[in-house]
Write a structure and sequence with these properties.
Helix content of chain B: 40-55%
Number of strands of chain B: 8
Structural class of chain B: alpha/beta
Distance between the termini of chain B: 7 Å
Order of helices and strands of chain B: HHHHHEHEHEHEHEHEHEEH
Order of helices and strands of chain A: HHHEHEHEHEHEHEHEEH
Number of helices of chain A: 10
Bound molecules: guanosine-5'-triphosphate, magnesium ion
Number of helices of chain B: 12
Mean pLDDT of chain A: 96
Shape of chain A: elongated
Number of strands of chain A: 8
Low-confidence stretches of chain B: none
Radius of gyration of chain A: 20 Å
Structural class of chain A: alpha/beta
Strand order of the largest sheet of chain A: 3-2-4-1-5-6-7-8
Oligomer: heterodimer
Strand order of the largest sheet of chain B: 3-2-4-1-5-6-7-8
Chain lengths: 272, 290
């Protein structure tokens, strides 16, 4: 759509459709186009102006920073299958490449072979794994992990949690408990609560973000599977309505397939 | 609700008992927004609405005393029909062994559904064999072995690549007298040509009677793109709609059925092997309409 030229009604309609197809949502798509039309100058490229408007949503967006505690603690949460465990593997690799030591806590004690999956990622990244086996109490693993990380002087502890639908209150309560245990064991607040959102998710992603933010105060989003055809447009509403920034982007299944979020390139790809 | 919004639309413009086509268009605009909010793909919405419009502009609706209700009924009927119409129970072809291949994008619920389907068929007197042909994702094989152990269904994963695993599994099934073979595969994107090629090769060597695609019910606009691509690349027989125990409206269900004409056979309603239900088109229609 970035071809410059005339801004006809058809052009604006195409751009609105592109935003809808990117999962921005019909009301937000129409609002963005209306705003852009008002300030639009005839010499500009309509698509570029829309992209600029989209990128502006993330102005003041907190960038990804490795937490500086001893250990810095990152808790990873989200609904089932979004890419939490894989993202943790990638993040561990990224931190290791920066020369930091990493511990991983296998607080997903529910899912079949979750421990083995995280163990593989720990080995690949050169991170230390704290696990207690399937069926253990997630809070107990979390507590153990903080103690072990402190004893080893680990720089960053990343906590994997089981996927859970936000509609299941007992599971959301369990998540709150894990966070409390981490903070009690560390003697200070968790540094980062990363919500992993799948880029293929539709409008339900906003409900997910709202519920997880209310439960455990999400500080950032990791948007995964951006190497597919989905555009991840739901993060605009997550940013606008909840103030939660996108910090990381997953671009594949390998341990190097993790990028720091860039609003400009995200916006251009959104309507490309 | 959609009903009250329609009533408002029709009340405002109505004059002298005869409905104006403009009112129908305004009502359709409301439906369009509602369906997009429910994650139905844009092209599917436009197609769907043009069918509804043709029916709504008929004489019986235009002259009706309750046009709002008529239009709602048309929308609901069209939705239910596209989603599969009447609920059809899942029946296996009468061959031995029946081969079922599971496909879909990453994280959609394939491995879990393989276990659910195996348990379901075992309870119906079949002898299933689960095949762990995802050798790529860390601990995918272990995951299926663990699930198989929980439900008392044998699992096999014999071979250095997925194609060999599938071939060996078929041999094993005939040796062990298993009459249903369920093949779990790696999640993949249609834009990955190597992975789509592998999927086709897997299909070529295992000759599945059913290729089922798992579709996550919270999927947005991309559902139609995925369904179209998988249909083109490996020709699907039907779908499983997963994670409907969440609160996603589930418009992806309309996108995938409208795009492919294939039915949704099952709905996944939880994480445990027993959390499997038949798919009911009329219930899904109500859910999508909100
Ligand atoms: N293509 C692609 N696949 C990804 C990406 N991130 C994760 N995946 C895949 O998505 C699938 C699910 O990933 P997991 O890490 O198991 O997801 P999870 O959130 O931990 O899942 P649960 O623990 O079951 O809730 C796996 O097949 C991953 O390889 C990504 O950025 N791109
Ligand atoms: N609540 C709920 N969770 C489900 C359902 N089906 C699968 N899950 C969960 O979704 C996550 C992903 O399921 P998997 O079976 O590993 O998905 P997959 O398609 O095999 O994933 P990949 O092999 O990585 O592509 C797991 O946490 C499952 O427990 C369902 O119907 N409801
Ligand atoms: Mg996980
Ligand atoms: Mg799997």
């Amino acid at each position: 759509l970035f071809r410059g030229g005339q801004a006809t009604e058809e052009t604006w309609r195409e751009l609105e459709d592109a935003l809808i197809r990117a999962d921005v949502g019909p009301a937000a798509a129409s609002a963005i186009v209306e705003r852009v039309k008002e300030s639009f100058q005839p010499t500009e490229d309509p698509a570029a102006v829309v992209a600029r408007e989209v990128a502006a949503t993330f102005d003041g967006n907190d960038r990804w920073e490795p937490p500086l505690g001893s250990p810095g603690i990152v808790m990873v949460v989200g609904v089932n299958g979004t890419g939490k465990t894989t993202t943790i593997g990638k993040l561990a690799h990224l931190l290791r490449q920066e020369g930091r030591s990493v511990s991983l806590a296998a607080s997903d004690t529910f899912r079949a072979a979750a421990g083995e999956q995280l163990d593989t990622w720990a080995t690949r990244a050169g991170a230390h794994l704290v696990a207690q086996g399937r069926g253990a109490d997630p809070g107990a693993v979390a507590f153990d992990a903080v103690r072990a990380a402190r004893a080893r002087g680990t720089d960053v502890l990343i906590v994997d949690t089981a996927g859970r639908l936000h509609t299941r209150q007992p599971l959301m309560d369990e998540l709150k408990k894990v966070k409390r245990v981490l903070e009690k064991a560390a003697g200070r607040p968790v540094d980062e609560v990363l919500l992993v959102l799948d880029a293929t998710t539709g409008q339900n992603g906003i409900a997910q973000a709202r519920a997880f933010t209310e439960a455990v105060e999400v500080t950032g989003v990791a948007l995964t599977k951006m190497d597919g055809t989905a555009r991840g447009g739901i993060v605009l509403a997550v940013r606008e309505e909840l103030g939660v920034p996108v910090k990381l982007v997953g671009t594949g299944e390998g341990q190097a397939d993790l990028a720091v979020f860039d609003a400009e390139s995200f916006a251009r790809r959104l309507i490309a | 609700t959609l009903n009250s919004r329609f009533n408002a639309v029709f009340r405002k413009l109505r004059s002298r008992g005869k409905l104006h086509p403009k009112q129908v268009d305004m009502a359709l605009a409301e439906i369009r927004t509602g369906l997009l909010d429910a994650d139905v793909a844009l092209d599917v919405v436009e197609d769907f609405l043009s069918r509804v419009r043709a029916r709504a502009l008929s004489d019986e609706v235009m002259r009706s005393l309750t046009p709002a209700q008529q239009v709602i009924k048309i929308v609901r009927d069209e939705l239910t029909t596209t989603l599969g119409g009447e609920h059809r129970p899942f029946k296996l072809p009468g061959v031995n062994p029946v081969v079922i291949m599971m496909a879909g994008v990453q994280g959609s619920g394939k491995t879990t559904h393989c276990a659910k389907l195996a348990l379901h068929l075992k309870e119906k007197g079949r002898q299933p064999l689960l095949v762990a042909a995802d050798l790529q994702r860390p601990a995918a094989v272990e995951q299926l072995f663990t699930l198989g152990g929980e439900i008392g269904v044998p699992v096999t994963s014999d071979g250095g690549d997925p194609v060999k695993v599938a071939k060996n599994a078929l041999k094993q099934a005939s040796r062990d007298g298993c009459n249903v073979v369920i093949i779990d595969t790696a999640g993949r994107f249609h834009v990955d040509p190597d992975m789509m090629k592998e999927a086709r090769r897997l299909k070529d060597v295992s000759h599945p009677h059913l290729v089922l695609m798992a579709c996550d019910s919270m999927t947005g606009q991309d559902a139609v793109v995925q369904a179209r691509a998988f249909m083109r690349e490996i020709d699907l027989d039907g779908f499983v709609l997963t994670k409907i125990d969440g609160d996603a409206r589930g418009g992806a269900a309309l996108s995938i059925t409208h795009e492919t004409g294939r039915p949704i056979f099952f709905a996944g309603t939880g994480e445990k092997p027993g959390d499997l239900e038949p798919f009911y088109p009329d219930r899904m229609a109500s859910r999508i309409l909100g």
